[in-house]
Design a protein that fits this description.
The chain is mainly α and 136 residues long. It has 8 helices and no strands. α3 packs parallel to α5.
């Protein structure tokens, strides 16, 4: 991002990487900047899914739900968005909505568990990502 701070593709990919390593504030900033010019492109649903994940890490569950729903509206089978939606509802104590989101998620990826996700993705041990996992 330092070399190409105005390149929307660099902002998108940097934002996604920052979500993955748990730097949620920087991720949200990069993804919001990328969204300005990447609306109505193939990137848009994935930007919203990344914003949902970053918001969840920042304990902003209502924003996480809003972003996840927008990602799902744009791309119904957006697995990252369904995961964030389930986790955010769980953190808000909305058990039925969390279960409903997990049920949809399991129709998309029936053989996956939270431990499988964590083992495969090799997420770092940071508070924001742990919060994401704990919600699932």
């Amino acid at each position: 991002m330092r070399r190409r701070p105005f390149d929307q593709s660099a902002l998108y990919w940097s934002g996604r990487a920052l979500v993955y390593v748990g730097d949620a504030e920087a991720a949200r900033s990069a993804l919001l900047r990328a969204l300005r010019s990447l609306r109505m492109t193939i990137y848009e649903p994935f930007i919203f899914a990344g914003l949902a994940q970053a918001s969840l890490q920042l304990e902003d569950d209502l924003s996480a739900i809003r972003y996840a729903k927008e990602a799902i509206r744009l791309r119904a089978n957006n697995i990252a968005a369904w995961r964030s939606l389930a986790a955010a509802h769980a953190h808000l104590g909305e058990t039925d909505k969390a279960r409903s989101s997990v049920d949809k998620l399991l129709t998309l990826i029936p053989d996956v568990s939270v431990s499988t996700i964590w083992h495969t993705a090799r997420y770092p041990d940071v508070p924001g990502l742990n919060r994401y996992r704990d919600g699932l």
